[in-house]
Amino acid sequence: MSESESARKSPLPRIIGAVVIIGLAAWFVIANTQEVSVRLWVAKVEMPMWIMLVVVFAAGWAVGALLRRRSAKKKAD
Q1: Which parts of the chain span the membrane according to its record (predicted)?
Q2: Phi-psi region for residue 41, left (φ > 0), alpha (ψ -120 to 50) or beta?
Q3: What is the DSSP string of 3-33?
C-alpha cells in the first residue's frame, strides 16, 4: 500500500473537520440566545433561538446520516 492510499483511509481529517464544524455550530448557538418568533405554515411559535438552531442542526445531521446510509447500501449492491 502506498502512502497516498494510507492517507486516504485515515479518519483523522474527517474527525478534525467534524470537530471544527461542531465547534462552530456550538459557538453560533451560544451566541444567539434571544427569543425569536417562527412561522410554521399556520402556527406561529416563539422560542429561544438556540433551541431552534439545535433542532435545525440535528435535522441536518439526521438527513446527512440517512443519505449516507442509503449511499452505502447502493455501493454494497
Answers
A1: 12-30, 50-67
A2: left
A3: HHHHHHH-SHHHHHHHHHHHHHHHHHHHH--
Smallest Cα–Cα separation from 34: which of 46, 45, 49, 52? Answer: 49
For the beta carbon of residue 53, count every other beta carbon within 10 angstroms.
19
Please give the chain's pLDDT, 77 residues, in tens: 455 555 567 888 888 998 998 899 889 888 888 999 988 888 899 999 888 888 888 999 899 989 987 766 666 66
For residue 5, the model assigns a pLDDT of 55
The residue type found at 11 is P
d(CA 8, CA 3): 9
> Tell me, what's the pLDDT at 33?
85
